[in-house]
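User: I'm putting together a teaching handout on how multi-component assemblies are represented. Below are the sequence lines for each component of a complex, exactly as they appear in our records. Could you produce the 3D structure of the whole assembly as structure tokens, so the students can see both representations side by side? Please keep the chain order the same as the input.
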Amino acid sequence: MNSHMVALNGQRTLLSRVMGGVLSLLAVGGILVTIAAFAYGKNAARQSFDRILLGAANDIAESIDIVNGAPIADIPVSAFGLLSLAADDRIFYSVRGPQGEVLTGYAGAVARDFTHDTLTTPAFFDSTLQGERARFVTVARRFSERDFSGAVFVFVGQTLRARNAMALDLTKGAVLVTGIGGIALLLGAFLVIRSAMRPLEHLTRDLSHRDPYDLTPMAADGPAEVAVMVHAMNRFMQRLDRQVGAMKHLISDTAHQLRTPVAAIRAQAELAIEDDPAHRAHRLERLVRRTRSLGTLLDQMLSRAMVIHRTDNAPPSAVDLRDVALKVFEDRDHEVLAPEAEVRLEIGDVAVIVMADEISLSEAAKNMLANALRHGTSPITIGVCADRGIGEIWVQDAGPGPANDVIDTIGQRFERSAASKGNSAGLGLSIVRAVAEAFQGKVHMARNDQGFRVSLALPADHSVEEV
Amino acid sequence: MRSLLRLWRMSLMVLCLIANPAMSQEASQRFIAKDATPSTVLLVRSTTDISIFAPALAAFVAANPSVEIAYEQWGSNALYANSLGACEGTATPADVVISSGVHQMVDLVNRACASAYQSEFTAQLPAARRWRDELWGITREAAVIIYNTDLVSAEDAPRTRFALLDLMRRSSADFMGKIATYDVEASGLGFLFAFMDSQEATTFGGLLEGFARVDAVATCCSAEIIEGVDSGRYKIAYNVLGSYVDTVPHANLGVIYPEDYTLFLSRAFMIPKGAHQGATAGGFLDFLLSPRGRALLSQSTLIHDSNSDETAANESATRYIPIGPTLLVAMDRHRRARFIEKWRDSFGVDAVK
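Assistant: Of course. Below is the structure of the complete assembly, with chains in the same order as your input.
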């Protein structure tokens, strides 16, 4: 049992596999969401701060007046108030005349040339501000005064700290929400998967706690997949149980049935040694009879064990009962058992097909014939007939058959009386009965006008019959 | 404080106190801890008068004997020009620049002339007193009105700008040539105060008109103005840095924190980009922002205690000059030109001494 547990611990459980899968899916999703959130955050930050930049540039452009023929800016504090919303960013601003000459503000070179578009629409561009990456906007204001005509350009730029911080903030928020959602999903998935796997867990626990000698069926509740598994396992255990039972029976029968004849043989042998030589021949003859009888008993016990083994292991196949009867007849065992008896074969020309195991059927038929030879009256007939979906193989003798009370008890697994007498009528019929049970058949015993008939009736297989 | 001053006097060698006009440098002094042989020289250029700043400097070198402070006192405009030159590589950079011309310092930071520094002390500063971790406000000084208590009666003393306006209208003859304020062209600080006034309230236009009516005097330098009022040359001075008032002998000075609003300035501390002793400069900044440094600056009146009686009722009238990019407007060429033009119209060229 411990070795089982160790073997199980060495492998990953289904739950951990599924959770691993879910986790990696969520991780991939999380990475994608993070990338998307960062892109979104960057874009949102750029749009927001571009608007601020443009607002400041427009403020400055609005403040420009033409004084004595020259454009003079009255830079409003509000413009820088706007820009200082990005609290830690450095600012560039420059008001330049039509030829690009600096009117006020910073003098540094501006990377961008004026284009015609700039005159009507604000132009944003990326550049650097004293080595730091920065974003700029150009706004033009056109004057058509008597003493000044032309465009004045306002450049406003700002470094990117606040933008990056905002993008990072948005990303962080999104990642936080995604993370919380992911954890909730993971938790939910864990609970759902665990509850779905509970029947399997039960099964695992039941199996690992189960006594290896316990072959009773297990409860087959839970989902269909598990029920199928449990059913299969139960079937397997039932078979195992039957075989173990058969083995137990065989052993106990053998013990029961062999002890008496073996003791008798030993007694005969000892007597033969000790008796005076005049009686030795007689003693030896009895010893031989006893020995032969023991041989028959052993044969039958082994054949019964084989029948039980086969009925559990060999799948049923279509068998023609006439073949079985013919084979038993042609084996001519009866010539050895009872050379004086007359044995006939009575089979028709129509096949009688049943689903069974041919070897088991042969053993059953042989035993039926042997019983008739041993206890019945010649002539003895072995025959096959089919009637209303039932195929029958039967053995009939001309005698009256056993007494009625014997008929009732006959064919039990063993009969102490029979065994102690050294014969084995009970065993022979019990083989027939075991075969009948294995293939959903019945054993009939009846007297009729011609004598006593024992028959093994099995359901006929129509599908094959019609072919 | 007294023991500390004594310690400073005993332990310091005053090496030199010379004027150096070629450098636009007003005075300089070296601070070395007693018996120390410093390995590092921290070059501090500041607009703050040496005498006011000395206790803090002395305490710093006493705490850090390996450091010698070479302190140079500059005018704010000259200091700005010098720092800009250092930034562009045409002058030797200082290790620390401290200026009351906060707008000039903001401009220097905006031109990427400063290096960043962060510590637990800088993190404690309110947002309005630091920018980009490159500029920090280390003091808290008020712009006040002072008057000569012998020449102006207590009931005449203007407690608000409106009162000053009324006074100048009502008795313009009494105050003819007797009202002084900073020359905005010569003093960065004076320009900053005036500029903030112009943004703060409409009274500024009236004030300029009033100054014009009484032929007010625009002059330079806190010490000179304070001395002028004390001696009776001026009856009233407007927008004088309050921190300087206590440091000069003044037998008959009245100090008014205007009740309509009082401007508060925080001297800006910057570590220039090319500073050779950046780490020591950071240590110096931390020292100034530490409780001990603040206590020393408080004793030197550089940190004005708002809980004192004079301003207790006046908290809502407090206006800080925020250290931030909005001050760049004060540096704008056109804006400045317009402002100074307006100023000149009021004072007249001859009023500027």
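A couple of points students might notice: The longest helix of chain B spans residues 333-347. The first strand of chain B starts at residue 25 and ends at 31.
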